[in-house]
Amino acid sequence: TDMWGLTYRDDERDTEDALGETFDVNAVEAPVSGNFTFPNPPLGIQPKGFVNAHFGPDSSAKSLQFRKGTTTLAFVYEPLTEKDQGGIIVAVDSRASAGEYISSKSVMKILDVGDHMVATMAGGAADCQFWCRTVHKYCNLFELRERSTITVSAASKYFANVLYGYKGQGLSVGSMVAGYDKRGPQIFMVNSEGDRTLLKVCSVGSGSLNAYGILDTYYKPKMTDEEAQKLGRRAIMHATYRDAGSGGVCNLVHITPTKKVRYPGVDVSKLWYEFADEIGRDIAYDPRDE
Amino acid sequence: LNAFKHDAKHDPLGAMRAFKAAFADVEENPDWRSARLIERQRWNPYSMEGGSTAAVAGDNFVVIASDTRMTAGEINVVNREVDKIHALSDNIVLTTSGFYGDVLQMRKLLESHLHKYRFDYRSNMTVDLCAELLARNLYYRRFFPYYTGAILAGIDEHGKGAVFSYDPIGCIERLAYSASGAAEPMLIPFLDCQVGHVTLSEGSERPKLTLDRACALMRDAFRSCAEREITTGDSIHLVIAEAGKPVRHERRKLRED
């Protein structure tokens, strides 16, 4: 069996552990890296320049550019009253643009990485989908081997190490690994540059500056569940309002100490009307159908 | 260098000009740059063959349509009867736009995977698995991509129509309809309106998507593309996959200009 990256040995050797008991080697030892390598262009051409020349913004392939662009955010909060659960709110938009063309308005940017963890997608869509799935595979193997759930710290560390191996080759991944484990709720922001940072309030993407504005203004460490969800949706709505690379629907996941809850998507233009009503703001331009 | 042939004392301007020209020449064509390096900088393995394709999923059917024109350099019509829709099995159909060499390679890869799956598991591969397989195979070429915008369509294991759309490196998404190719910016707004009912005004009728309506919409869409897009035309190739029935092909003539 040869998936990229990790392989299980196909042999049927047994290995002895410290107590002298024999086990199948596949069950005990960590999988080794296989000999899959990504094929590169010939003649020693560097992949980053090649891909940029043929699929980048200056290329002739308008509709074949890679899908990108986003606003994602996550924050940790504690419960205010006994009825609230606290945890992590992760909110994202759902637009993917191939250059200036909106190639999809319904991308799911919150990907599962384990039973109690999620990773968000920002930057290159295919890159994030592939590598988040790789991390998910690693988490599953880890849990089978070690017979305990993997921590967010370990999963994000693995993710960062994998991305560091491809540093400089043109990958574009800005992901937040968020989850609840024995150390509490944690959000790690992981980058294709090799960054890995533990944060309580985090936003990544082209609309992240707008989202940070709202988050920094209204974030409180202790909030009720409704306040927290509203804050997440409001930040996404403002980001999509002012950023051309974000739009579509606002998807939200609430990670509580016991489970992950996915909420259905809300169209951001409807969100705008709700928030405008609430702050008593006039819609400056009100076209009427004759 | 020519600069040294000029006498700086008697012809300073000429000497300066010659020096500048020599400098620019060395910057453009350095001595150390071999033919191989020049070839490397200009190496372009891709070319676009033009054309467009689209797919629409219904409750228990999926309709895939494409034109059949192949162009070279966006100007010459090389072939008027090219197959851009490849039915890989009775419930998996691949259709792509982009570089035809990469399209053929992708098709060969998927066909061999389907064949191996049938050998290993004694049943046909489902559309969802094939979609995931294609996404991964596209990403394995992340640093030397397939120059294609792929659409995989078929009937999933619950009998519903499925359309999966990809970018060149394998970002996968399951949708109700998708289009790819030169006329994608013309097809998608049309399908958004008539199939997704997204841009219809409040009071207008939202008819149900039956097989006949889907086929009619596809024919209309491609006729309108042929009117306004140079690399789309010659004929429409329609492929209809229904749950439990073999795949059907239909062809209609389009403008040949």
TrEMBL record, chain A:
It catalyses: Cleavage of peptide bonds with very broad specificity. The keyword Signal does not apply. The active site is at T70. GO terms for molecular function: threonine-type endopeptidase activity. GO terms for cellular component: cytoplasm; nucleus; proteasome core complex. Gene3D superfamilies: Glutamine Phosphoribosylpyrophosphate, subunit 1, domain 1. It is found in: Nucleus. Coiled coil: none annotated. Keywords: Cytoplasm, Hydrolase, Nucleus, Protease, Proteasome, Threonine protease, Zymogen. The keyword Transmembrane helix does not apply. It comes from the Eukaryota. InterPro entries: Ntn_hydrolases_N (IPR029055), Pept_T1A_subB (IPR000243), Proteasome_sua/b (IPR001353), Proteasome_suB-type (IPR023333). Its EC number is 3.4.25.1. GO terms for biological process: proteolysis involved in protein catabolic process. Pfam families: Proteasome. The 26S proteasome consists of a 20S proteasome core and two 19S regulatory subunits. The 20S proteasome core is composed of 28 subunits that are arranged in four stacked rings, resulting in a barrel-shaped structure. The two end rings are each formed by seven alpha subunits, and the two central rings are each formed by seven beta subunits. The catalytic chamber with the active sites is on the inside of the barrel. This is proteasome endopeptidase complex. It comes from Pristionchus mayeri.
From TrEMBL, chain B:
It comes from the Eukaryota. SUPFAM superfamilies: N-terminal nucleophile aminohydrolases (Ntn hydrolases). InterPro entries: Ntn_hydrolases_N, Proteasome_bsu_CS, Proteasome_sua/b, Proteasome_suB-type. Gene3D superfamilies: Glutamine Phosphoribosylpyrophosphate, subunit 1, domain 1 (3.60.20.10). GO terms for biological process: proteolysis involved in protein catabolic process. It is found in: Cytoplasm; Nucleus. Keywords: Cytoplasm, Nucleus, Proteasome. Pfam families: Proteasome. GO terms for cellular component: cytoplasm; nucleus; proteasome core complex. PANTHER family: METALLOPROTEASE TLDD (PTHR32194), PROTEASOME SUBUNIT BETA TYPE-1 (PTHR32194:SF2). Non-catalytic component of the proteasome, a multicatalytic proteinase complex which is characterized by its ability to cleave peptides with Arg, Phe, Tyr, Leu, and Glu adjacent to the leaving group at neutral or slightly basic pH. The proteasome has an ATP-dependent proteolytic activity. Component of the proteasome complex. Belongs to the peptidase T1B family. This is Proteasome subunit beta. It comes from Pristionchus mayeri. The lineage of its organism: Eukaryota, Metazoa, Ecdysozoa, Nematoda, Chromadorea.
